[in-house]
Amino acid sequence: MTDPRTTVVVITHNRRPELLRTLDRLAQLPEEPEVIVVDNASTDSTADAVARHHPSVRLLRPGRNLGAVGRNLAVREVCTPYVAFCDDDSWWAPGSLSGAADLLDRHPALATVTARILVEPEGTEDPITEELRNSPVPGPRWLTGPALGSFLAAATVLRADAFRAAGGFHPRLWLGGEEELLAADLAAAGWWLVYADHLTIHHHPSRVRDATLRRAHGIRNTLWFTWLRRPARPALRRTAHLARSVPRDLVSVRAFAEAAAALPWVVRERRVLPRAAEARLRALEEAQRHSSARRYVG
């Protein structure tokens, strides 16, 4: 069942045990994908451990923590038509990479395929899966599953050329809800995003994470995306909703302040989405407003 169509890209920072577990799982896949690891300046000997335990893995060491942009660095090296992202605490189920590649082969207007997420060690569905399954975004008849307005990087296989043409992940966003801007730019270019319920990725959440920093970046990046791509009225409406809905604490205040401080840059780079792409986002807003799960962003 070896399948040469997809390369797996993993970014990591100071999570050596989790990364080695993920690489062990990926090495057992029947597809035998090429794997590229971007070590975002770990200080726990991650790179040495990868070289020692998984010598066939291609290891990139940028020398600093690039966040999500580490994926851009890896995709430049990808020679396969498709690239699958996963985090250092997640791994693809056997057959899922081939299943996603089959969908991308079959539908040339499809840019991303997002899988259902099982949370380990219990093997229960992540609550966001139900929202993906019931996405309200309207899609063309040929689409094999629910159309999406965004995607979750750690559970998605992408068309590598589409990723590159859209510019990959924006370096300003770093990490935390960074997918929404890229997803919107893919939609603006005419690409479709889909959820595939028959594909699976496993996520064993790492205990080594700064949840406070991730929340701050998620709020900031949501604001930046909204101001960069949404028309004035929806942008104001979403900004107001976010101000009402985030926790009223110092983390949120700092996130709003950091976002506002970048307004000169936002104004320079602002490019409103075409009507069709904006319509997909409007279809999502009501569902996101009442979400009890992790949101598509932040």
TrEMBL record:
Coiled-coil intervals, chain numbering: none
PANTHER family in UniProt: GLYCOSYLTRANSFERASE (PTHR43685), GLYCOSYLTRANSFERASE EPSE-RELATED (PTHR43685:SF5)
The protein's name: Glycosyltransferase family 2 protein
EC category name: transferase
Enzyme Commission (EC) number: 2.4.-.-
GO molecular function: glycosyltransferase activity
Keywords: Glycosyltransferase, Transferase
Keyword Transferase belongs to the record: yes
Superkingdom of this protein's organism: Bacteria
Presence of keyword Nucleus: no
Pfam (any one): Glycos_transf_2
TM spans (from-to): none
Family named by the database record: Belongs to the glycosyltransferase 2 family.
Species of origin: Streptomyces huasconensis
Gene3D superfamilies hit by this protein: Spore Coat Polysaccharide Biosynthesis Protein SpsA, Chain A (3.90.550.10)
Residues of the Glycosyltransferase 2-like domain: 7-132
